[in-house]
């Protein structure tokens, strides 16, 4: 068999670039290959050439291809002009393509939406344009990560704030479909996939606070069922445990206490000084945790947590509309 050949003897994606590009075209282009050769629409989106986009999309032949997933000459990943413009952060091109009919939530071959790649590349303006146009703030269920998770990991509080404003879910949702109910839904078996965990692991305090203010579950950061018995041995058993293990400063612990975390989920009594030392626990953070667990929480604090849970995270944004004094509203919102 020739190098790079497939099992049926046909040429496959060998080490040479052009062969891989040809294979991607055959597999993923949603138009005949001769049409995919014309990549002017995609190239203009890549370089941010708005005038060329205007000129091309005056023609019906190009307008009908606005959602074409083509292998463009500037790269090999089959995707739409909108996805390309969002990746590069050309907000004016993103806005124009949407107004000309580009579908905002089409995914590429990796399951990434235009919003997700805008967030990954740190383009706030493009992300806000997509969100305003109706893009799903949670990205695609076909991709393992979410815009919220990535913004939390890299500490982009400005992008995270925009995602939350447009209704992004700040908890992990492992339901296979929107209407799936337990026991048919997947169970959380690791905190690593959770935005709260990743923001703590990277010590992004502002993002950590934003997630909690938006209603993130302070114990497991998950919507569905949790199976702690299937957590990896030695891995954190809850968000508070993770905060302590990652050596986060005391402010992280204080926030979890304020937002009603269950302190009894942390099993630190069984750990000797040597084990704690290996985990590089912040002494001040550990002291705050111990003090919080040694005394009852105030009635005022318990009431705030109870009211927020009764409202639910999807209605917290309505708190400013309640017929309450402004200080009470700010108190409920942790402002």
Automatic annotation (TrEMBL):
Q: Which residues form the SOCS box domain?
A: 293-335
Q: Which InterPro entries match?
A: Ankyrin_rpt (IPR002110), Ankyrin_rpt-contain_sf (IPR036770), SOCS_box (IPR001496), SOCS_box-like_dom_sf (IPR036036)
Single GO biological process annotation from the record: male genitalia development
- What residue spans do the ANK repeats cover? 80-109, 110-142, 143-175
In its UniProt record, a GO molecular function of this protein is: ubiquitin protein ligase activity
Per the record, the pathway is: Protein modification; protein ubiquitination
What family does the entry list?
A: Belongs to the ankyrin SOCS box (ASB) family.
Under PANTHER family, the record lists:
ANKYRIN REPEAT AND SOCS BOX PROTEIN 1, ANKYRIN REPEAT CONTAINING
**Protein's name in the database:** Ankyrin repeat and SOCS box protein 1
């Amino acid at each position: 068999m020739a190098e790079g050949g497939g099992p049926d003897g046909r040429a496959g994606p060998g080490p040479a670039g052009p062969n891989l590009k040809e294979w991607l075209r055959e597999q993923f282009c949603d138009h005949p290959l001769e049409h995919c050769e014309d990549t002017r629409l995609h190239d203009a989106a890549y370089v941010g050439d708005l005038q060329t986009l205007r000129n091309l999309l005056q023609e019906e032949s190009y307008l009908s291809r606005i959602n074409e997933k083509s292998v463009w000459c500037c790269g090999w990943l089959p995707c739409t002009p909108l996805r390309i413009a969002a990746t590069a952060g050309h907000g004016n091109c993103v806005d124009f393509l949407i107004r000309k009919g580009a579908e905002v939530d089409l995914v590429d071959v990796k399951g990434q939406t235009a919003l997700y790649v805008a967030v990954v590349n740190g383009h706030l303006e493009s992300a806000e344009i997509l969100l305003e146009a109706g893009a799903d703030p949670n990205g695609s269920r076909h991709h393992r990560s979410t815009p919220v998770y990535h913004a939390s990991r890299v500490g982009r509080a400005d992008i995270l704030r925009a995602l939350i404003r447009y209704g992004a879910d700040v908890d992990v949702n492992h339901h296979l479909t929107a209407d799936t109910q337990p026991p048919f839904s997947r169970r959380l078996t690791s905190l690593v996939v959770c935005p709260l965990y990743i923001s703590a692991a990277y010590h992004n305090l502002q993002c950590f606070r934003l997630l909690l203010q938006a209603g993130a579950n302070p114990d497991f950061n998950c919507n569905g069922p949790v199976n702690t018995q299937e957590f990896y041995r030695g891995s954190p058993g809850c968000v508070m445990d993770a905060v302590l293990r990652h050596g986060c400063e005391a402010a992280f612990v204080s926030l979890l206490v304020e937002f009603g975390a269950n302190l009894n989920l942390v099993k630190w009594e069984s750990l000797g000084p040597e084990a704690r030392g290996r985990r590089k626990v912040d002494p001040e953070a550990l002291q705050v945790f111990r003090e919080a667990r040694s005394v009852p929480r105030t009635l005022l604090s318990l009431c705030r947590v109870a009211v927020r849970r009764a409202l639910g995270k999807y209605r917290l944004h309505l708190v400013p509309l309640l017929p309450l004094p402004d200080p009470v509203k700010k108190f409920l919102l942790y402002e």
